[in-house]
TrEMBL record:
Pfam families: Terpene_syn_C_2 (PF19086). NCBIfam families: amorph_syn (NF041563). It comes from Streptomyces cynarae. This is Sesquiterpene cyclase. InterPro entries: Amorph_synthase, Isoprenoid_synthase_dom_sf.
């Protein structure tokens, strides 16, 4: 399969940043993975629009505008550059769904965490018990579940649903955290962020994209479990850098950069530098560990690891240019 390469380089700004937060991130973040895009991106983008419209999720103009600013198919393309068109479309649909779900949960939970319970319980019922949906969001989730079942093995589908339930539970933890921001230290923020990241539900799709299934010994090897954790953390912490200004303005709490700002009583650029240090260490550990296991891994396992690396790479290149985080370029660095 052909893969489209971007013309930009992995680190476009050398030396000191020239004045804003976006340039600071681009200058100091370690990104060893080159930018790649899936050749089926335009098909996935059209498919996402059709799918969201079919379930009524973009009937609200505000939601439609959010999707336009967020570009879920572009994120899917960066994260999954070698996947076939069918799996890419599932990835793009799920990314779009999670952004809609996450924004609605954040709006409800910020007012009162208990208001989240009906929508979260509906999702758990669909993912765990196969209950019929009662809302448009629930209907979209049930359809995603159907799409995954059609493309994945039963074991892969079960892992997808389990990670999806973890994500749903994480949104309730986030809502509770919003009620008392000063208590949310970096460690607690990281624990909640690992749940709300919503990255790990995509790893069973990375499995399904391989020509052969991974053996249980490979899938559950301690090194592979560690790689999943490193990949998910790096993939979600990178957008935290670019979204920090947006989250700060909207009163967000579960964001790595903002957690550093609270704990160290420092400016946002200083906090971003601290967060970058942690991300760089995480990416370097992922890079070292993936190279260590490469000689003894099957082609399917290597492809799976490459899929996890894709989420690190993709979240960076997408975050850098997506309109959702355009404010990053307006924050001066002293």
């Amino acid at each position: 399969m052909s893969v489209e390469h971007e013309d930009s380089t992995a680190r476009p700004y050398a030396g000191n940043p020239s004045g804003n937060l976006k340039e600071l991130i681009e200058s100091e973040l370690y990104m060893p993975f080159p930018p790649l895009r899936n050749p089926h991106e335009s098909e996935a983008a059209a498919g996402v629009e059709e799918w969201l419209r079919s379930w009524g999720l973009t009937d609200d103009p505000a939601v439609a505008a959010m999707i336009a600013r967020t570009r879920p198919a572009e994120l899917a393309s960066y994260n999954s550059p070698t996947m076939d068109a069918g799996i890419l479309r599932i990835v793009a649909n799920q990314i779009a769904y999670q952004f809609v779900f996450d924004d609605q949960a954040e709006e409800l939970g910020r007012r009162r965490p208990s208001r989240l319970l009906p929508m979260l319980c509906e999702s758990i019922g669909i993912l765990r018990d196969g209950r019929p949906p009662t809302t448009p969001l629930g209907a979209a989730l049930a359809d995603l579940h159907r799409q995954v079942e059609e493309r994945c093995t039963p074991d892969q589908t079960a892992r997808w649903a389990w990670h999806g339930r973890e994500y749903v539970h994480g949104l309730l933890y986030e809502a509770v955290a919003q009620t008392d921001p000063p208590r949310i230290r970096i460690g607690l923020c990281g624990s909640i962020r690992s749940l709300t990241a919503g990255v790990e539900p995509f790893y069973p799709l990375c499995e399904a994209a391989q020509p052969h299934q991974l053996s249980p010994g490979e899938l559950w090897h301690p090194a592979m479990r560690r790689l999943r954790r490193l990949s998910a953390d790096a993939a979600v912490w990178i957008p935290d850098l670019f979204s920090a200004m947006k989250e700060q303005r909207e009163g967000g709490v579960i964001n790595l950069a903002l957690a550093y700002a609270r704990e160290h009583h420092c400016t946002l650029p200083q906090a971003v530098r601290l967060a970058i240090g942690r991300i760089n260490r995480t990416v370097r550990e992922f890079e070292r560990l993936s190279e260590q296991i490469r000689p003894r891994s099957s082609p399917a396992a290597l492809g799976y690891v490459d899929g996890m690396a894709g989420w690190i790479r993709g979240c960076y290149y997408w975050s850098r240019d997506v309109p959702r985080y355009a404010d990053t370029a307006t924050v001066p660095v002293g």
